[in-house]
Structures are given as C-alpha cells and as structure tokens.
Amino acid sequence: MAVDMLILALLGLPLLASALVLVLRDRPNLRDGQALLIGLMTAACAIKLYGTDDGATLKLLSLAAGLDISFTPEPLGKLFALVAGVLWPVATLYTIGYMRGAGEKNHTRFMFFYAIAIHAAMGIALSGNLLTLFVFYEILTFSTYPLVTHKGTAEAVQAGRVYLGILVASSVILLLFGIIGVWVLTGTLDFKSGGILAGHIDPFYVPFLLGLFAFGIGKAALMPLHRWLPVAMVAPTPVSALLHAVAVVKAGVFTILKVAIYVFGIDFLRETGSSDWLVWVASFSILAASIVAMTKTNLKARLAYSTISQLGYIVLGAALATSLAASGAAMHIAAHAAGKITLFFCAGAIYVAHHLTDIKDMNGLGRVMPVTYTAFAFGALSIIGVPPLAGAWSKIMLMGGALDNGHLLVLAVLMISSLLNLVYLGEIVLRGFFAKPSGKMGHGLKSNVVQEAPLAMLLPLCLTALMSLALFFAVDMFILDFGG
Amino acid sequence: MMQHLPVLQVLLPLLGAPCAALLRGRDMAWGLALLLTGAAFLISAVLFGLQYNAGEALIYDLGGWPAPLGIVYVIDAASALVLPVVSGIAFVATIAARRLVEAEIDARDHALFYAAWLLTIAGMLGQVTTGDAFNIFVFLEISSLSAYALVAMGAGRDRRALPAAFNYLILGTVGATFYVIGIGLLYMLTGTLNLTDLAERLAEVESTRASFTALAFIALGLFLKMALFPLHFWLVPAYAHAPSAVSALMAATATKVSVYVLIRLMFGVFGVEFNGLADAIGLLILTLGITGAFAGTLAAILETDLKKLFAQSSIAQLGYMAIGIGAMSMTGLAAAFIHLFNHALMKGALFLAIGAIAAQAGRVSMQSIEGAGRQIPVTMTAILVGGLALIGVPLTAGFISKVYLVRALLEQNFWLLAGLTFISSALALAYVWKIIEAAWLKERPENAPALIETPVHYVPAWLMVFATIGFGIFAGPLVDAAYAAAAVFIGGPS
Description:
The complex is a heterodimer of chains A (about 475) and B (about 500).
Chain A: H1 2-23, H2 28-50, E1 58-64, E2 67-71, H3 75-101, H4 107-126, H5 130-148, H6 154-186, H7 206-216, H8 228-231, H9 237-264, H10 266-272, H11 276-295, H12 299-320, H13 323-354, H14 365-368, H15 370-384, H16 391-404, H17 408-434, H18 439-442, H19 455-473
Antiparallel strand pairs in A: 1-2
Helix pairs in contact in A: 1-2, 1-4, 2-3, 2-4, 3-4, 3-9, 3-13, 3-19, 4-5, 4-9, 5-6, 5-9, 6-7, 9-10, 9-12, 9-13, 11-12, 11-17, 12-13, 12-16, 12-17, 13-15, 13-16, 13-19, 15-17, 15-19, 16-17
Chain B: H1 5-22, H2 28-54, E1 58-61, E2 72-75, H3 77-104, H4 110-129, H5 133-152, H6 161-190, H7 195-202, H8 209-225, H9 235-241, H10 244-270, H11 277-302, H12 306-326, H13 330-361, H14 372-375, H15 377-391, H16 397-411, H17 415-441, H18 455-473, H19 476-489
Antiparallel strand pairs in B: 1-2
C-alpha cells in the first residue's frame, strides 16, 4: 500500500506542478516557488521508494486484454527514479536562475513542459511492462519538443524536426515492432527478472530482435541514431542539463538496460551470444563520439558528444550481459547524471555570466569564475573516471564485466576512451585556470575580478559536484544484483 | 416495437428524405435530419446492446416473409458494430452541418441537400443491415447516387466540385456494375441471393470457373467503392471539393461501409477456405494495401490543401484496413474492424475541424492556417490530436489499431510486411508535422483574415476527438466487439 502511494506520488507530483504552473502563470515567484517545493517532495518520495522492498505492482488501467498500464518498481527503475527525482529540484532552482538571468521568454510554457517531462521519466522508470514504458517514452518525446524549439528561431524549428523525426520514427518503426514482436512470441509484455523470451524464440533471431530495441530506443543515442542530441543543444541550457544529459538520454539507456535484463534476460543473452554485436557497436559509439567531441569548440556541442560517448558505456554494460557489467551500467546512470549535469550547469553559468559559448574564448575564465570552474573540474574528473569520484566505480565494474566475459578488447576501448575524455574535458579546465585571456575574454573582463553567475545557478552546480564526490563513498547503495 | 428496430434503422432516414425535400423554411429540414440521425444512432446503440445480450444474430424478416422467399435483415456482431459507426458519425456530422451548410450552400437548396443527406445515410445503413446480396446493391446505389449529388452541391463555391462529382459518378457506377455482375453470376450458379444460402450452396460449385469469376467481379467492384489503391482516384477530388459537411460524413463512413460489404461477401459468402481465395486474392489485397499505404502517405506529404491531404491519408488508412483483411485471420479481421471504427472517429474529427475553418476561410491550405494555433487554439488542437492518432501515438485510438494490425501480421509470420507497415505509419509524422509547424511555429501574416471560433465551431469535432482518446484509453470493449465481429466470419466460438 505504501509503495502504491509512493508510485502515485512520483507520477502525480510532477503533473500537479505542471498544473499549478498554468494556474499561477501571472505570479512568477509563486509559480517557480511551488515547482521547487513540489520538486523537493518528489525527491523525498524517490528516496523513500528507493529503500522499499520489491514486488509491489500497481495496475492503473487496462487498454484492452493484455495491454495494461501498470507500474512495478524494481532496483534499476528505483535507481532511475531516484536520479531523476533528486536532480529535478536542483535543476529547477538552476532553471529559475537561468531563465531570469538569460532573459528567456515564455517561462510558463517552459516550466509546464519541464514538469511533464519529469512525469514521463518517472513513468518510464517505474513501468511494469513494455506497453507502459512505450507510452511514457512517447510522452517524454512529445513533451520535450516544445522545449527544444523554445527559442522559436529557424534553427530551433529545424532542430525540432530532427529531434522529433529521429526519436518518433525510431520508436514507432523499430521499438514498437520489437514490443509487439515480444508480445506475439511470448504472449506477455510484463518485465520479469530473468527475462521472458527464453524458450519462446529461436536463438538465431535473438540478435535481430535485440537490434530492434537497441536502435528503436533512439533516446539512447547509439550511433548512427545520435544526431538528435547535438541539434537539441539549441534548447536553453537547463533543458540540456536535466533532459538531454539526465532524464531523456538516461531514459533511453535505462530502457535498453531494462529490456536486456527483464525481457531478454542477461543469462539468455550471454548464453546465446546474441549481444556480442552490440558490444562492438557500443564500443564504436564510445570511441567515435569521443573523437568527434574533440573537434567541437562549442562547449555545449562538445558536452553533447561526450554524452553520446558516455551513453555507449551503459549500452555496453547491457551488451556484455554479465551481472557485474549490468550493475556497472546502472551505477553509471547515476554517476554520469551527477557529473554531466554539473558540466551543463557550468556551461549555462558561463553563458549567463559572460555570454560565452566557444571554448577558445574561455581562456583564463577559471580565475574569473573559480567556483564554477572547480565544480566543472569535479564533474569532468568523475566522467573521466578518476577516484575519489563516482565515475571511477562504474568504469571499474564495466571493466570487470568485460573480463568476466572474455572481451579483452573492450578493456582497451574503455582505457582509450578515458584518455580521450581526459583530453577533451581536461582542455577546458586547463584553459580556464592556466591559459592567458585572449579573444573576447581579453576585452571587457578583468581577469582578477571574480564575476560568477547568480547564486540560484551557483548553488545547484556546487550541489551536483558534491554529489559526484558523495556517490563514490556511497557506492554500496548502488551495486545492484541482477543475477547471472 | 423492439423487434422492428432493424428495419426502422433504415426506414426512418429513408422515409425522412422525401419529407425533408418538402420542408421549407429555415432549419426545418436540418431539424428533421438531426432528429432522424439521432434516432438512428439511438436505434443502432440499442441494437448493439440487444445483439450483445442475445449472443447470436438477430434476424428480421421483411414483410413477414421468411428467409428463402423474402429479404432478411441481419443484426450480427459485425453489423451491430458497424451500424453505430455510421449512424453516430452521421449524427455528429448533422450537428455540424447546420453551420457548414449555411456557409457553403445556397439557401434554396438546403431542403434538397438534407434530403440527399438522409438518403445517403439510409443507403449506408441499409448495406450494413441487409442479408441479401442484391439488396446490398440497391442500397449501394441509393447511397452512391445521393452522394454524387451531395458532392456536386459543392459547386456553389468551388466549380471543381462538378468534375469531381462526375468522375466519382462514372467510377462509382463502374464499381457498382462490377458488383452486380458478380452477384448475377452467383445467382445463376446457386439460384439464391440470400447471403446465408449463398454461402451454403456455393460450397457445391466451388471449383467452377464461374464462381471464381464472380468473386473477381465482386472484389474488384468493391475495391473501387472502398477506394483501394490503385482504384482510388475518384476519392481525393470528391472529398476535397465537396461541401465541408459532406467531406466529413463521407470520409468517416462511405468507404468503411464498402470495406464491411467486402468482408461480408469475401468471408461470409465465399469463406476463407474458398478455392484460391487465401492465396490469390489475399496476397493481392495485402500487396495493394501496403502499396496504397505508402502511396497515400507520400501523396499526403506533398499536398498543401488540407482536405486533399487528409483525403490522401484516407487512401493510406484504407490500405491498413485492406492489410487486416488480407491477413486472412481472426486477428487480421478484428484489426480491420478496429481500424474501421477508429479511423472513422479520427477522420470525422479532422474533417469536422477543417470544415469549421473552411466555412470561414474557403480553401484550407497550409498558408491559410499559418499562425492559426494562437487564433483558434481549440480547433487546431482537435486537428493536432486527430493527426497524432493517425500516426498511431499511444493513448489515441490509432495506437490500438496499429498494435492489433501488426499483431495479426506477426501471427502469420509476415515480418517484412509488419516492418513496412511501421515505416508507412511513421511517415504520417511528416504531413502531420507540416500542419503543426504552420499553425504553431509561424506567425499569422498581417493580411490574413482573422479566424474565429466559438463552441458552435469546435464542439462537433471535439466530440470525435474525445471519442478518439476515449477509445484509445479504454479500448477493451471495442477490441472484444471487433473479435466477436471477426468470429462471425472466421471459425472461432461464434
């Protein structure tokens, strides 16, 4: 019963927030204040849910026989709900600072869809079957479209087209195909630990079915379906931070992981060797995106490609199909979320405080924005995988999984990728602290006067930087056991 | 009284038509049409309930003459499902018609318009109810002839309605003639026109060339009437240039009735086991269905006139229904019935919403709806939801249709065809999104006429939108009814 209430609260609170945003549209302080308050309540519920036992199922309604909307919290889903729930209020505080600082228009519409997107992410996290997952997956796509096109410029409209085109087309062509395929093959859509497919399908066809899911879940930005993510960077930075570094992309990789564990079953995947091809596709995605990231000098674009690369780690964890690798992937959902949201928060802070977007213009900026740059360094080091920051654990676990499975080449991929991360993220930090101011920075700013972004933005990015640190020590909480 | 409902269903609008023609004065004819379509909707709802409770077909002997001698009306699970679609859409379209007809048709012709309106509805209801092959032809002609006249009435503001109606007439007549030739052959072979008797006696002459020829004629005639690709060329101009109310009524119902008649004859008379049916005709229908789905969708993407765009989309949607039929299975037929029902709701909503704009702005093109999202948000939202349903977005009726259609294909191991179906339905995103971008992401040009909306404009469309969402969320009863309807024709526990 208590679990049921928590599920309803996690789904309902964001909806309530979006409704109140509309009601209070003429009173900005009240509108934003309630969103923050409800965000904190959501975070509390997500934390509470994380501590509960599994096994409860909440059936909301039935579309038709066998097509239910139901919710079953399990360790992985609770982890994703926790990540989205805790980061939402932090990001809301940041959004308030950003939207006012950067002078963006249409705050109400923005806050409304922002909350709807969190509602959809919660639905995905707690979904008890493939249908429920698909429904909320699509809600997430459509609710983030107005956020991507928020600026209303020709560029934003074009970005919206690519965004919607790739995400909707991949999901309704491939993902839905896979889902109905599973339904016809097994007669059920429910997630079960150990998977539902074993014994219902000729192992020869499993790689193809897995392909429908791996490429149907466009939100996981697996190459070559990654184009939507960089173009979506045209959205205001809070969208990039919470949605395109956390909620949306994590919903994608979470779905892949969930399908691998609860539909295919990692034992079934490993025994049939069906996911070996995905190991290589994910490895390619990791390396290729890192290399592209190095060529980008626009800060948000570089972070976007870094995200694509990091998402590859999580897909890799699913594809390696061992318990350790899957736990590493789950851990990376949390670790990368905390790290990458910090980096995006910093990018937004730099934009609001100094209107800079290009890395080449940011020489010496670290001395002007010491707090922002320290936080950036924390996030960057976590993503590179340096202890004592969260990213170190997930990489170690992924490497362990690769060893278990005998994929020695994957070890090399992970190491090279860490080096590449070091180059393209380290460059930003080094330029900030040690390079001489030049370009736009040279004029206008005195390099010895501290000019930080507003406090409402500074506070969240410090918080998330500390989270990266805290996660390293709280790793016990995040090691999940998926059997196998 | 209750036992006469099957005949009253058809008789009320049929007899109402001449009365409407005689009525003069503002709104009198409209009032009569509204009353009679309302009654027809009520009757079909009651019939659905009666049939559901009885669990078997309700047979009505016309004039008290039993089956072999007289004509029977049959209310089984299939006709009980299709009747409320036709009469319900007719009722809602009649509500909207008052305003649309006032705006688009000369006041002198109103009485005649409603007479033809009631006739075409009576004809459609008759085709669904009757259990006699020739009687189907009679009702087919009643509904078609009055539909030609209705389309031609668009000439008042758009002269292109005349060639459109003429084309429609020629091709419609060819279709009806093919059908009646097929029926003639069957009568020659078996000596009966009663559908049940036909089915029984046809088994004895199954392997004759004449029976196969009859099937070919009947199928071809009905392909034309249901606008199955590539026999769809009459449909787009007819829907686009007809008065808006007529577009809405016909887009949502006319072709659906032909789909129903096709199912009734193919499966109810010839049967799935009929010699060569599954192999030859089934494969043909699948091929034409998927080709039509692509052709219609691609044509819709290129189209800038909204009525034409959604008419092209209808070609695609009829393709999906054909795919359900061509799967030759229980789930396939159920999917065809589900989509028949759902598509009527979606297209009803879309054409009613577009009609509300057309009544003010004349031609509704991408240009004339630029920035309309802010001026008439309620109407445009109806178009948005209708469009999303066409794509098959979850929580709309279109999603349910797609799930069952693909399920039917996968059960038969048509994996490639299922993939193609997904691709063509995803392409619908392109034409729906053109509309969204024009309406919401563009500013309204300074010189564009101001559009207005009041509840009178958008309530009819929104009735359909609510139904589209409602049947997308609570689809259980519809799915059950569709399976029951399919069971009438294919094995199963009928």
